[in-house]
């Protein structure tokens, strides 16, 4: 059985739609997945480690 480990990041983005998309696409290309948005806060997660359990 494998164990998945994630890293989380919260970033504030106060930009127009085009610039926001550019910023989020950059995070996406770095392996981050957008999880949620609340006001200007953007919550991201990234799988960082998979361990095999015996």
Automatic annotation (TrEMBL):
Q: What's the domain of life for this entry?
A: Bacteria
Q: Name one Pfam family in it.
A: DUF4177
Give the protein's recorded name. Answer: DUF4177 domain-containing protein
Instruction: Supply the source organism for this entry.
Output: Romboutsia hominis
């Amino acid at each position: 059985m494998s164990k998945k480990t994630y890293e989380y990041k919260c970033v504030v983005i106060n930009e127009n739609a085009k610039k926001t998309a550019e910023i989020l696409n950059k995070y996406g290309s770095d392996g981050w997945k957008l999880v949620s948005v609340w006001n200007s806060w953007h919550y991201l997660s990234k799988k960082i480690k998979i361990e095999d359990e015996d």
